[in-house]
Amino acid sequence: MGQPTLIAGETRHTVAELEELAFELRSKLLHLCGTYEGAVHIGGDLSVADILTVLYQYGMNVDPTNIANPARDRFVLSKGHAAVCMYIAMAMRGFFSYEGIVETYGQLDSAYGMHPCKVQLPGVECSTGSLGHGLPIAVGMALSARGRGDTHRVFCVLGDGETGEGSVWEAAMAARSNELGNIVAFVDRNRQLMTSFAEERVAFEPYPDKWAAFGWNVVMVDGHDMGQLVAAVDALPASDSKRPTVIICETIKGKGVDFMEKNLAWHAGRLGAADLEKAMTALNSTRKKETV
Amino acid sequence: MAETFTFGEMLSARSVIGTTLAELGETHDNLWVLTPDIGATLVEFRDKYPERFVDVGLAEQVCVGIASGLAYDGNIPVVSGMLPFLSMRALEQIRSDICYPNLPVKIIGTHGGLVGNGGSTHYAVEDLALMCALTNMTVTSIGDPLMVGEVLRQSMAMPGPLYIRLAVGKSDKVLYEPGQHDIRIGKGIVARQGTDATIFTHGTVVAQALEAAEELAVEGFNVRVIDMFTLKPIDADLVAQCAEETGGRFVIVEDHLAYGGLASRVADVVADRGLHLTAFERLGIPQVFAGFGEDEQLRDKYGYGLEATKAATRRVIAATA
Ligand SMILES: Cc1ncc(C[n+]2csc(CCOP(=O)(O)OP(=O)(O)O)c2C)c(N)n1
């Protein structure tokens, strides 16, 4: 099927532009983490930032002007603790204002908080936060699309730790049993859980083989390489095909900020003004290296 | 360490869990600690007894299932995690694999009530109703951080399952001087004496109820506060005694659904024993999926904060028989 269709009037971003957008997303994430009084799941936000950029700015057919557009691709953030990364990615795509997020995040009655809430924030497709719920819901959405003869896709982003939940594998089985080629799962394979490095506690490997054994089409990419992410999206099988696709994205938790990278202390945290500056300097230095 | 903390100080219940389990691991070589990736406070136990520590990663159901298997074979497993996920994802394992065979598994966790600002997936607001419904389950909800250690120690001799509910557990007010009260599972604590009315409460809002009672004392009211930290089996004799001694004027305040938690259990005692009340008010979470906000803001919003507690208490005192 090749490249996804676009909402009328849009142009497609280049890889370089997407890289710039991902940088902007990370800067905004750090700003929020540096100014908000509570903890932000910054580690898993930074690891999934490139994935959400490619989805919202390239891969998904979304319609910020009509969030109920039936032709839109559906998106389920199964690792709901990366909500703030999704809010900002959506704001950058025109769903709502970034300032609105920063000004009200985590406050009483705010639409924006630690986990996505569809009731308070229409535009979010589904309320998540309890891990292991997203993929089953995505299967339901994909079945519905199939039943109606719709051609949109259902995208679902999971944490690798999250895939320790049995419900993920029940859903993987159901997706294949129902021949749902309209499902695309992205796994943010940062090899960290909340309190441990993943492989210390859970024998995930051989990880791609597990998905393959469940009958999925498995694609491996560097989850911080925009070119590879774009290529993976471009190569997605047609949505009326029979095999669901999983794109396993090798990532680094805390990506872009040296003192957060692969550091268990930064699953969630609060930066504060001084460390915000440090973090921004670190992020800026990664940008130079990449563009020189 | 108990002596170094006094009333009003803040202490992390999680750190108490950590040190208590490490200490109990020494005296009980069949004590196991399990967690589904919520292990930060269990580091001391993990490092001392790595062979009796199991972190299964994100997998609450198998975590409770493994605890069952360990207990079937004569061990004492403690499962520590976040309560919305333990009490609901693993509910059937708790019911059929632990309660049904009546095994000595302790489930202990955080995020009971509208606490932590995580949104509705992360608030355990119906957990006490669920747990109280389970045959053989003993159900507790603890506010005082030092009590957590005491209850864990007592639980080592319990033959059946136990549920221990905490709020966030990062910073909790020490409510009782060590030794001030005889803390026993199944017995309510008279946290404050009084004769005009009784406030029954548990967990994180005990501190708030005590504050309300102190402020009402300035207005001339003498209010009793019962920390009913064991919801099941409920201390029915204490409920009856309070009905008699405080004019049958009851306020129940809890960080849980207003129907299904302590208020319902007290109401059951009232009905079953045919107690005569003058007034009964229940303050708790209504049937909503709450959004974001700090703990205190949410309590105020949903009508079980400090001011609401005082207002309800004034009303029951003013009620005429
Ligand atoms: C069912 C459930 N159990 C526990 C949690 C608490 N929790 C939030 S994030 C997390 C670790 C998730 O690891 P992973 O899925 O790999 O996400 P990432 O590392 O990308 O942040 C845990 C244990 C939760 N949100 N849901």
Q: What attributes does this structure have?
A:
heterodimer, A: 292 residues, alpha/beta, Rossmann fold, 5-stranded parallel sheet, 10 helices, 5 strands, 42% helix, globular, B: 321 residues, 2 domains, 7-stranded mixed sheet, 5-stranded mixed sheet, 12 helices, 20% strand, binds thiamine diphosphate
Describe it.
Chain A has 10 helices and 5 strands, in the order ααβαααβαβααβαβα. Chain A is an alpha/beta fold and 292 residues long. Chain A has a single domain, classed as Rossmann fold (3-Layer(aba) Sandwich), CATH 3.40.50.970. Chain A has a 5-stranded parallel beta sheet with strand order 1-2-3-5-4, with helices on both faces. In chain A, helix 1 crosses helix 3 and helix 2 runs parallel beside helix 3. Chain B is an alpha/beta fold and 321 residues long. In chain B, helix 1 runs parallel beside helix 7, helix 3 packs parallel to helix 5 and helix 8 crosses helix 12. Chain B folds into 2 domains: 164 residues, Thiamin diphosphate (ThDP)-binding fold, Pyr/PP domains (Rossmann fold), CATH 3.40.50; 130 residues, Rossmann fold (3-Layer(aba) Sandwich), CATH 3.40.50. In chain B, the strands form 3 sheets. Chain B has a 7-stranded mixed beta sheet, with helices on both faces. Chain B has a 5-stranded mixed beta sheet with strand order 9-11-10-13-14, with helices on both faces. Chain B has a two-stranded antiparallel ribbon with strand order 1-8. The interface between A and B is medium-sized, with 34 and 29 residues. Thiamine diphosphate sits at the interface of chains A and B.
Helices, strands, pairings?
The complex is a heterodimer of chains A (about 290) and B (about 325).
Chain A: H1 15-35, H2 42-59, E1 74-77, H3 83-92, H4 98-104, H5 134-148, E2 154-159, H6 166-177, E3 183-189, H7 198-201, H8 207-213, E4 217-222, H9 226-234, E5 245-250, H10 272-291
Parallel strand pairs in A: 1-2, 2-3, 3-5, 4-5
Chain B: E1 10-11, H1 13-27, E2 31-35, H2 43-48, E3 53-55, H3 60-72, E4 76-82, H4 83-88, H5 91-99, E5 106-110, H6 127-132, E6 138-141, H7 145-155, E7 162-165, E8 172-173, E9 189-192, E10 197-201, H8 206-218, E11 223-227, E12 230-232, H9 236-245, E13 249-257, H10 262-273, E14 279-285, H11 295-301, H12 306-318
Helix pairs in contact in B: 1-7, 3-5, 8-12
The structure holds thiamine diphosphate (TPP).
Thiamine diphosphate sits at the interface of chains A and B.
